[in-house]
Amino acid sequence: xxxxxEAQIIIDESPNKVELEAALEKINGLLRAQxxxxxxxxxxxxxxxxxxxxxxxxAGEKMAVVDPAMFEEVSKEALxxxxxVVQLIGNLPQDEMYVLSIHFEAARQNEE
Length: 112
Description:
Helices cover about 65% and strands about 0% of the residues. It is mainly alpha-helical and about 110 residues long.
């Protein structure tokens, strides 16, 4: 996992650093298993998003409801990986999976 200085600051300054690092370790494993290599920018955006997901989980906040039909083009692999992360974090609505899956799908496109 190659992360930028900006991404490292997000991790270091997170009030949920332990949970964030655990989630990132899981995500890195999922990505490596699929041979997906996010760019540094993609990692930074993903890390920020996961940090916010953990904050919402702890605060019991819910994001806006999304229409699953908007995510029909997202691969099953990206959705599966996102679901595993949402389950790991816990206390999040299924809508989070769809939004998170976009990060994995975008990184998958790097290979094509």
